[in-house]
Structures are given as C-alpha cells and as structure tokens.
Specification:
Structural class: mainly alpha
Distance between the termini: 61 Å
Radius of gyration: 31 Å
Largest sheet: 3 strands, mixed
Number of strands: 3
Order of helices and strands: HHHHHHHHHEEHE
Number of domains: 3
Low-confidence stretches: 1-81
CATH class of the largest domain: Mainly Alpha
CATH architecture of the largest domain: Up-down Bundle
Strand content: 5-15%
Length: 375
C-alpha cells in the first residue's frame, strides 16, 4: 500500500470519528484543541453537504436514504424486467421471421414448379409481412441504443416512426384486398379450389403460429401489436380463402371468393382500428391511449402537500416509454424532495416512467407561457 493510500485511509477514519463528535459540546482549553475543533467543524460542514445534515438532520437523512435505496432497488428491478421483455420480444420476432421466410420460400418454389401465378402473388404478399416483422425487430433493437450527445433519448423515437410505417402498410394491404375484390365483381376469374385450399391451410398454420407467438407481448409494445395485426390479417385472409376454396370446389360459385374477401377486409379494419389510431396519435405526441389525463391529475392531487397542477404534458418517448412534465403547486411547509418522490411513484403506477416535475410555492405566480398550458 502506498503512502497516499495510508494517508487517504487515515483521513477517512478521522472524518468518520469526527462526524460522530460534530454535534457534541465544544470546549477549548488550549490552542491544539482549538485547532482540532476547527478541523471537526469543517468536517461537519463537509458531511452536511454530502449527507444532507448527518448531525443536525439525522432523522431526515435516514428517511431520504431509505427512499433513495428503495428507488434504486425499484429502478434496478424495472431495468431487469425491461431487459427480459426486450429479450423476449426480439426472440419472438426472430422466430416469426424465420418460419415466415421458410413459408415464403416454399410457396415461391411451388409457384414456379406448378406455374401458379396465385401462389407467386401470395408469396409476394407474405414477403411483405416478413418485411413488417423485420421493421418491428429493427424497432426493438433501436430501442436499446444508448443515449448520445445529439440523441439524448437514444433512438427510442424511431420505434414510433416504425409503428406508423407498419400502420400505413396495413392500411395499404387492406385497401388492396378491397380493390381486388371489387375488380373481381366485374371480372370474375376461375379459381382452382383444391390448390387454393391446400395453400390456405398451410398459411393458417404458419400465420396462426406467428400470431400465437406475438400475442403475448402485443400489449407491451405497439410495434409488436403492429406485427400481430399484420399476421392476424393474413390468418383471416387464409381462413377466408380456405372457406371459399371449399365452397368453390363443390359449387363452382366463384363470386363467393370476392364476398369473403370483402368480409375479411372489414374485419381487419375494425379489429386493428385502435392500433392504427394509436400509431398516428403518438406520432404527433398525443397522450398515449393507455393513459388517462384526468386520472393522472386526480391521483397526483391526492399526494400530501400538493395543492394544484398545471402545464401538464404527456407524450410517448417510444412505444414503451411514456414521459410527463408538469408544474406542481405545493404548500411552502412540505418537503419538496418527499413530494417529488411520492409523485414519481404514483406516476410510475399509471405507466409514466419518466417525469420532470417543477415545484412552485402556492404564493408564487407561474411565469411560464400559457400558450402550451393544460390545467
């Protein structure tokens, strides 16, 4: 051990010993003791800065230390859960992409082998679903990119952009189904019922398995929800094709294919409407649908010491992280640190993990602009 280390340890021991004596009664009998008293007083001031008043505010420090440790444990616990969720989502997306790519490859091979334009067209459509799954995977990866000087939130916002792209692709796919259905009303085409039914049955298995895998995490991430609805749409289309194929095989009633396609398109729009609206809403920094602004306000007002709240802004940083800024008017007698700690706990329970809170005294006048104020 170096002399510097010995000296550092000695100073540390001295600080610990002196801090226990800091609030004791001081008596000065000679110059050496006066020097020691001055040294002790300086030590107490140092510890007061870094330990929030070890001597004069021991009880308050213990309370804040408990809150800090609880918050640290809570943060680590959430961080651990978030990592597990990220790993689970990425794993599901990798598996989904793999099985759907295999299906596309087999379908395209059969299309070329049997000279079936229908199979080739369906393979191209399923390839677009793989593209959608790939976008969701990219979003999951980008969400984990660390913050940088020019990207203080990392690349989390890209997950919202990708969610919007997936929503647009889904709308285009549904419009394509509607257009093709209407076209076939005036230009009906013969369909090979048996071949179509076989392909549709395989599609139901593959798409159904993908839907099952994505269903677990679709409520945790809007991009997973987007991939889920893409695959659900394909599953419904495959079911419709299977039903129409069987009916056509026995009746030669080709118009049934068009009718079922239109029914499927309507089901997709109705079922995925919330996803489409949510994607657009958070893209323009609207309040996420999972959060009720009035509930947030009322729950915060129940925190002891809070008198009113204004300048509330809630938005989505990513498809899984929500943020809030607000001005909190508090009684001048309350402990501001304690109020903030309690407010953050309440907000976390409501799904808002990132909160910036500005405390204002009840006797002060808010000078912030009213142009962006929501009271």
């Amino acid at each position: 051990m170096s002399n510097n280390d010995i000296s550092s340890n000695a100073i540390t021991d001295k600080i610990t010993s002196d801090s226990e004596k800091c609030c004791a009664e001081h008596e000065h009998h000679h110059e050496d003791e006066e020097h020691e008293h001055n040294h002790e007083h300086g030590t107490c001031e140092h510890n007061h800065e870094h330990k929030h008043g070890h001597c004069e505010h021991e009880h308050e420090h213990d309370h804040e230390h408990h809150d800090h440790m609880h918050g640290l444990f809570h943060h680590n616990h959430n961080h651990f859960e978030t990592n597990n969720l990220d790993d689970s989502i990425r794993k599901v997306l990798y598996i989904s992409i793999a099985i759907n790519l295999i299906y596309v490859a087999v379908e395209a091979f059969c299309g070329f082998k049997f000279n079936s334009l229908g199979l080739l067209s369906d393979a191209g459509h399923n390839l677009s679903d793989v593209f959608s799954l790939g976008l969701s995977l990219i979003a999951a990866i980008l969400a984990g990119v660390h913050t940088k000087a020019n990207f203080t939130y990392g690349l989390r916002k890209s997950t919202i952009l990708i969610s919007l792209i997936n929503a647009v692709i889904l709308i285009v796919a549904v419009l394509g189904i509607i257009y093709e259905s209407i076209r076939r009303f005036s230009h009906p085409e013969p369909i090979q019922g048996v071949m179509v039914s076989y392909v549709a049955a395989i599609g139901i298995l593959i798409n159904g398995l993908t839907v099952y895998l994505l269903n677990k995490n679709r409520s945790d991430d809007l991009n997973v929800a987007g991939a889920f609805w893409h695959m659900m749409a394909d599953t419904l289309v495959s079911i419709g094709v299977l039903v129409s194929g069987i009916i056509i095989y026995f009746t030669n009633l080709y118009i049934i294919d068009t009718i079922i396609s239109l029914i499927v398109a309507v089901i997709i729009i109705v079922s995925s409407w919330d996803f489409l609206c949510d994607s657009l809403k958070i893209a323009v920094d609207g309040v996420p649908s999972s959060i009720n602004l009035d509930e947030v306000t009322q729950k915060c007002l129940k925190v002891e010491g809070v008198k009113s709240i204004h300048h509330i802004h809630i938005w989505a940083v990513s498809t899984r992280l929500n943020a809030l800024t607000a001005h909190i008017v508090v009684d001048h007698k309350v402990d501001g640190h304690l109020v903030k700690s309690q407010l953050r706990k309440v907000l976390a329970q409501l799904g808002i993990e990132h909160a910036t809170l500005e405390l204002e005294d009840a006797n002060e006048e808010c000078t912030a602009s009213e142009a962006c104020c929501h009271s």
